Design the sequence.
């Protein structure tokens, strides 16, 4: 073999590979278009059926803005406040949970078990109409945020715990052997790596919370579900009003799911191959 | 892991406990020494908090055009606040939370067309009634087999749970100043969170989910006007006296407040305000009988 000569088989392989990549990219685009077309078809079909069955479009235009403008800010506000408190609770809860102290770990696991094992609606009622019997009277909005925070804090405690424990023992041992104190090890080595794993699920929890926040409507808080039911029911236009609320939840969750996946891919950048 | 986190953990645990303690203590309203009755508190606050439910046209609903509170109850509440000389604020808890009493001082007064019953009077003080409402049986518009409410014995009848209509069917209802004939025997009672659910289920068709509904005559007529296929069956089965209500277990003594609101309502009967509002919203004077209502000697 002559030195420096290019072997034909290698050239063929590379070109073939590049062609393959292009073909795959085109196939993905076609598939996305197909999916989009199916979605569009379903939406048009459902809308057509609803309009045919006397969906009152006039009601939707009259009440749509009221339902959204009064409902969405409260829904978002309650969810944002609750996810913030839930994150703090989850941080505290997860640290207690992985502690060797049986008291701290016991308290945390009891909290997680209790709040994951009871329905959110029951928790809301206990806080809003149960606690006053013990002399603790919370305003509706405060009770709602507290219930959502405690409930989601319990779920997120487990997410945080899993994230922290997933960092390999070698990381901690290496940090300690470099002379870091245990606190430094946690703050500088374990926590920054754990955060990358923890943040994307927080986004998921927030999207779930947007929907669960509808439960606080039972306390007379004027969020999306409340404004929709109270505009629709007295006029016997439930479907119209609830469709507006459902569409708003859908758009909000789609929006925040997109934001969440952007954050996820950004945090994952350093780990891409 | 133990040595890594124990230090911060103790601090965090203390913070958590402190935070819980803070939330437990914070909401208790500060207790000024001066006023220990509800009337004085409302006047000092300058705001009357009235519970109502925007589900009940023409009593209480949001106006189509302005999206503002409107209705008979709403105007009565506004007039009471005006005559007390305070601002008005509406809160919107579920109806069964209002009738149950134990409001935990979250609102001061219910102006929600609430029927006076001895059962409710255990938890609530009632004001002078501001109008009456006929309780009416409705059936589906297409029904031809029922001639009077008595024909509904053993049928599926929708009512709001905890309402007087349910008590009528269980034959436990008693209304001061009213003799009630229980003409429906052994009804299959279907209780709903509010009347409107029952009306909607009856609207699905004759006998689909319900055979009849009992609700206030104005509520049913309003539904019919909105295009719901119902019709009234026979005459009203009884009349209810509808009054403002105040929590007996309010942390401040509620009696002077109840007396003051009763006094205002009597004045509104005397000067024709309630007659005018009733005619405006219902087309008839439903207030007259309520003006003559005499509470029992022990009071409500």
Sequence:
């Amino acid at each position: 073999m002559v030195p420096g000569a290019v072997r034909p088989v290698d050239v063929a392989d590379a070109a073939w590979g590049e062609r393959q990549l292009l073909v795959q990219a085109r196939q993905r685009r076609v598939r996305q278009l197909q999916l989009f077309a199916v979605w569009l078809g379903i939406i048009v079909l459902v809308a057509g059926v609803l309009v045919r069955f006397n969906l009152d479009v006039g009601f939707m235009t009259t009440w749509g803005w009221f339902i959204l403008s009064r409902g969405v800010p409260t829904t978002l506000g309650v969810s944002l406040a609750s996810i913030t408190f839930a994150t703090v609770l989850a941080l505290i809860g997860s640290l207690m949970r992985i502690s060797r102290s049986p008291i701290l770990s016991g308290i945390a696991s009891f909290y997680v078990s209790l709040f994951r094992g009871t329905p959110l609606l029951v928790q809301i009622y206990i806080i809003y109409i149960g606690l006053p019997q013990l002399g603790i009277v919370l305003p509706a909005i405060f009770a709602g945020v507290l219930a959502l925070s405690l409930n989601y804090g319990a779920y997120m405690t487990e997410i945080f715990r899993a994230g922290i424990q997933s960092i390999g023992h070698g990381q901690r041992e290496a940090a300690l052997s470099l002379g870091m104190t245990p606190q430094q090890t946690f703050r500088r080595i374990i926590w920054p790596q754990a955060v990358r794993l923890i943040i994307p699920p927080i986004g998921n929890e927030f999207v779930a919370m947007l929907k669960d926040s509808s439960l606080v409507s039972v306390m007379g808080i004027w969020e999306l579900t409340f404004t929709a039911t109270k505009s629709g029911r007295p006029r016997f236009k439930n479907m119209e009003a609830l469709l507006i609320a459902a569409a708003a939840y859908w758009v909000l969750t789609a929006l925040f799911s997109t934001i969440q996946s952007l954050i996820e891919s950004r945090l994952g950048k350093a780990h891409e191959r | 892991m133990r040595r890594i986190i124990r230090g911060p953990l103790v601090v965090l645990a203390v913070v958590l406990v402190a935070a819980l303690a803070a939330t437990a203590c914070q909401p208790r309203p500060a207790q000024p020494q001066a006023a220990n009755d509800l009337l004085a508190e409302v006047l000092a606050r300058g705001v009357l908090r009235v519970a109502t439910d925007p589900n009940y046209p023409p009593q209480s609903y949001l106006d189509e055009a302005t999206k503002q509170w409107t209705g008979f109850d709403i105007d009565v509440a506004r007039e009471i606040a005006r005559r007390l000389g305070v601002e008005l604020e509406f809160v919107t808890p579920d109806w069964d939370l209002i009738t149950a009493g134990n409001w935990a001082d979250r609102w001061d007064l219910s102006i929600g067309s609430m029927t006076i019953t001895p059962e409710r009077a255990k938890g609530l003080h009632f004001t002078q009634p501001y109008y009456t409402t006929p309780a009416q049986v409705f059936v589906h518009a297409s029904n031809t087999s029922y001639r009077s409410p008595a024909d509904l014995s053993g049928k599926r009848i929708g009512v709001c749970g905890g309402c007087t209509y349910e008590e009528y069917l269980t034959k436990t209802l008693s209304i001061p100043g009213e003799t009630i004939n229980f003409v429906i025997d052994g009804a299959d009672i279907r209780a709903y969170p509010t009347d409107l659910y029952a009306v909607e289920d009856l609207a699905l068709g004759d006998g689909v989910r319900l055979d009849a509904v009992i609700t206030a005559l104005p509520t049913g007529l309003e539904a019919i006007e909105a295009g719901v296929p119902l019709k009234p069956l026979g005459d009203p089965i009884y009349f209810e006296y509808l009054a403002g209500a105040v929590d007996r277990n309010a942390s401040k003594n509620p009696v002077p407040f109840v007396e003051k609101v009763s006094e205002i309502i009597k004045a509104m009967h005397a000067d024709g305000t309630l007659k005018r509002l009733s005619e405006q919203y219902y087309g008839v004077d439903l207030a007259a009988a309520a003006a003559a209502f005499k509470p029992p000697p022990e009071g409500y």
Summary: The mean pLDDT of chain B is 87. Residues 2-25 of chain B form the longest helix (24 residues).
